[in-house]
Amino acid sequence: MNENENNFESLKRLLAFKKREIPPPGYFNNFSSQVLSRIRAGEAREPVTAAERLFSEAPWLLKFLQVFEAKPAYTGSFALALCLVLVFGIVFAERPDYSASQPLVTTQVADNSTPLVSVSPAVGQIMLAPDNTNPASSLQPVASLFGQQDSLAQQASFTIPSN
Amino acid sequence: MIMAESVERTETESPAPEEESELVRRARKGDLQAYDDLVKRYQERIYATIYHMTSNHEDANDLAQESFIKAFQALKSFKGGSTFYTWIYRIAVNKTINFLKQRKNRTHMSLNDIDFNAEHDTDLIALISDNTPRRAAGLTELQKKLNEALLKLSEPHRLVVVLHDVQGQSHEEIAEVMNCNIGTVRSRLFYARQQMQAELADYLK
């Protein structure tokens, strides 16, 4: 390390020259009074614009935007990510697997002889049983993801004895 | 007025910790006279650091003022874990680095005058009086080259060189200001010096 220090001795002497750079004469005489004037002016002034109010209440937002301003690569990456999300959203929304391929209730309006609501045979049996008190019979058949419509329908578990 | 002498004078007149903490306590309560005293104690060192980082007097003036204003507004959050000096130094350094990142590749030097006494600096005369291009260049050219070489460094490397080789701060103090360990400070200083040496090879023969 000492050898390195010796190697840099000339550089250090050269850098010491930077101390010789001085601001205009009298510059520091007014410096603190300027700072205090700005502090007083800032205390008297309320945030004017909506943007100023927003940034004063959420400084993280300003930092977020400053990062984008300082590094254009981040801006590009963020925009690219947003585009990808949008494209994936559109693609998946248009896939047939994700649309409702089978309606919950099938309606038929072809002729009067057929019932408007068609139910699976199992459900039909339940509804035709007069003595059934199982509340499951009041449920509409729900189409499952696998196309089985009678998953909620169950046989009556007991019957009320007739007099 | 000589900046080097001013800095030394300020350092020798640094207040006792009690006195500084008393000033901070009063300033936290909104006492602007106490804050005025604090500003006067540190204005030269804060300005000098920012100036050496930016190589621009107007930018250094704005940033130094804004640093003191921000420090006053944030005084309530100052817990006293470090000295007020280190704390305000950190504010100024962060503000300067953010500024430099924003104005990247839009560098404009606005250099201060050179102290008249520099012409009588024997070390400096020895550096520029040999039969090399340095002699013709003179002090103004040397100043320009030095600042250009500094501006070619990345902000963290430049900061380490400025704080250590120009301002004379210790590795420990720099590590505290930059919020990194001493090893990082040393390695940055070594790399920055190497790069500076290559840039200023004509002056270092």
Secondary structure topology:
The complex is a heterodimer of chains A (163) and B (205).
Chain A: H1 2-7, H2 9-15, E1 21-22, H3 27-44, H4 50-57, H5 59-70, H6 72-94, H7 121-128
Helix pairs in contact in A: 4-5, 5-6
Chain B: H1 3-12, H2 17-28, H3 32-54, H4 57-73, H5 84-102, E1 113-114, H6 122-128, H7 133-151, H8 155-166, H9 171-178, H10 182-199
Helix pairs in contact in B: 1-3, 2-3, 3-4, 3-5, 4-5, 5-9, 8-10, 9-10
Protein described:
The complex is a heterodimer of chains A (163) and B (205). In chain A, 50% of the residues lie in helices and 1% in strands. Chain A is built from seven helices and one strand, in the order H-H-E-H-H-H-H-H. Chain A is elongated and about 110 Å long. Chain B is mostly helical and 205 residues long. Chain B folds into two domains: 3-102, RNA polymerase sigma factor, region 2, helix turn helix motif (Rna Polymerase Sigma Factor, Chain: A); 121-203, Winged helix-like DNA-binding domain superfamily/Winged helix DNA-binding domain (Arc Repressor Mutant, subunit A, Orthogonal Bundle). Chain B has helices at residues 3-12, 17-28, 32-54, 57-73, 84-102, 122-128, 133-151, 155-166, 171-178, 182-199; one strand at residues 113-114. In chain B, helix 3 packs antiparallel against helix 4, helix 3 crosses helix 5 and helix 5 (84-102) crosses helix 9. The longest helix of chain B has 23 residues, at 32-54. The two termini of chain B are 32 Å apart. Chain A binds chain B through residues 4, 7-8, 10-25, 27-28, 31-36, 38-40, 42, 66, 69-71, and chain B through 1-4, 6-7, 32, 35-36, 39-40, 43-44, 47, 51-52, 57, 61, 64-65, 68-69, 72-73, 98, 101-102, 104, 111-115, 117-118, 121, 123-124, 127, 139, 142-143, 146, 150, 161-162, 165-166, 190, 193, 196-197, 200, 203-204.
